[in-house]
Amino acid sequence: MKLLTHNMLTSHVKGVTKGYPLLIKATEVKVNEVEFNPQFVSRMIPKLEWGALVQAAEELGHRQDLPGELVQDYEKNEDFLKKVHRVLLEVEVIEGCLQCPESGREFPISKGIPNMLLNEDEV
Amino acid sequence: MASSCRRPEHSAPPDVFYNEEEAKKYSQNSRMIEIQTQMSERAVELLSLPEGQPCFLLDVGCGSGLSGDYLSEEGHYWVGVDISTAMLDVALDREVEGDLVLGDMGHGMPFRPGTFDGCVSISALQWLCNADKRTHSPPKRLYTFFSTLYSCLSRGSRAVFQLYPENSEQLELITTQAMKAGFSGGMVVDYPNSAKAKKFFLCLFAGVAGVLPKGLGSETSDKAVPNQVQYSGQRCRFRNMKGKSLKKGRDWILEKKERRRRQGREVRADTKYTGRKRRPHF
């Protein structure tokens, strides 16, 4: 599970109002090399919850020098875009779980795939 | 996809039907791969994404990632959701570029509002129409799916579903729940006159009224699938041949050639020699 996907995932359990952002408890993290596409990164930045992204990167210990606040005029700032690209698309959680901030319910992650299947009483 | 039985969703729920054996076909059977890729191409075409822009897409029922691979080929980034671990394992083996999520469509899409620029789904939606558990209510599951999908799509984006509807009631059930959830749009049918080539694509627009694309291989496809069968009157044309064999005669031959042209096949031109009486030794 890449951090881009994590930034979009919420808990969809019935009755939960604040199921975002899911806390990451990772036991295995991998860093891949992914081709840098500045156009895609700069298009995705406005859609991201920046705070959640920084928090997730911190939880994984891969924050490095990612700024806590969004930089102005990031479209031309290739350095900044590269940092965002690394955190969004290159850091991957392989094993661990995601925890709902409201209910504490855990969604396990196995082989990089989060299990978002719900029980019958959660639908 | 159909195996020995006609409709797989009648034999088992999707997480049971798509076991390791079935999943293997998606990585080995070249015909299956070809069909799935073709349908993915058509679905992306119907999505009408802005040119030259990498988009963030959702693949519902991504399975082994065949459709996802096509999305990656087109330069897009995607997240795939599927209910079968066996199929997702095949996707992992094939090292697909998109992120995979194990989930049930009927539980709703677990994403924030406005996440995706579009959604594709190949051969998956019909599985929602069957109640696999006592607690399942297909209309409710369909509505849960469509309403959460509507919210996680950005305004002005589309969702294209290739599906195999069992009958018109099922089609109606699906479209009703989609409209209830806020979508506009309708069905696009490719090659409506061919039993083999006919494909159904449900094209939904989120938050903006759009023009429904035309289906392939048909002149009159600027509206949704008609509820009545077309050409039914023409089928009875040769009833009164008065003792002569039904499958002969120039009229019948010309009609058959016209039928095959409508199916999109290659047919020789009609000339003065078409259906002429041959010499007796034939």
UniProtKB/TrEMBL annotation, chain A:
Main localization category: cytoplasm
GO terms, biological process: rRNA (guanine-N7)-methylation; tRNA methylation
Protein's cellular compartments: Cytoplasm, Perinuclear region; Nucleus, Nucleoplasm
Keyword line: Cytoplasm, Nucleus
Molecular function terms, GO-annotated: protein heterodimerization activity
Top-rank taxon: Eukaryota
One Gene Ontology cellular component annotation held by this UniProt entry: nucleoplasm
Family of the protein in this entry: Belongs to the TRM112 family.
Name of this protein: Multifunctional methyltransferase subunit TRM112-like protein
Organism: Astatotilapia calliptera (Eastern happy)
TrEMBL record, chain B:
Pfam family membership, one: Methyltransf_11
An example Gene Ontology CC term for this record: nucleolus
Highest taxon in the source lineage: Eukaryota
Localization of this protein: Cytoplasm; Nucleus
Compositional bias per record (Basic and acidic residues), positions renumbered to this chain: 264-273
Residues covered by region (Disordered): 249-282
Predominant cellular place of this UniProt entry's protein: cytoplasm
Gene Ontology MF term list: rRNA (guanine) methyltransferase activity
Reaction(s) catalysed (UniProt annotation): a guanosine in 18S rRNA + S-adenosyl-L-methionine = an N(7)-methylguanosine in 18S rRNA + S-adenosyl-L-homocysteine
Boundaries of every 18S rRNA (guanine(1575)-N(7))-methyltransferase Bud23 C-terminal domain copy: 204-279
Keyword Nuclease: no
GO biological process: rRNA (guanine-N7)-methylation
Methyltransferase type domain sequence ranges: 58-133
TM region(s), chain numbering: none
Keyword list, A-Z: Cytoplasm, Methyltransferase, Nucleus, S-adenosyl-L-methionine, Transferase
InterPro entries on file: Bud23-like, Bud23_C, Methyltransf_11, SAM-dependent_MTases_sf
PANTHER family, per the entry: 18S RRNA (GUANINE-N(7))-METHYLTRANSFERASE-RELATED, METHYLTRANSFERASE-RELATED
Subunit structure: Heterodimer with TRMT112; this heterodimerization is necessary for the metabolic stability and activity of the catalytic subunit BUD23. Interacts with GRIP1.
Family: Belongs to the class I-like SAM-binding methyltransferase superfamily. BUD23/WBSCR22 family.
Function comment: S-adenosyl-L-methionine-dependent methyltransferase that specifically methylates the N(7) position of a guanine in 18S rRNA. Requires the methyltransferase adapter protein TRM112 for full rRNA methyltransferase activity. Involved in the pre-rRNA processing steps leading to small-subunit rRNA production independently of its RNA-modifying catalytic activity. Important for biogenesis end export of the 40S ribosomal subunit independent on its methyltransferase activity. Locus-specific steroid receptor coactivator.
Name assigned to this protein: 18S rRNA (guanine-N(7))-methyltransferase
The species this protein was found in: Pundamilia nyererei
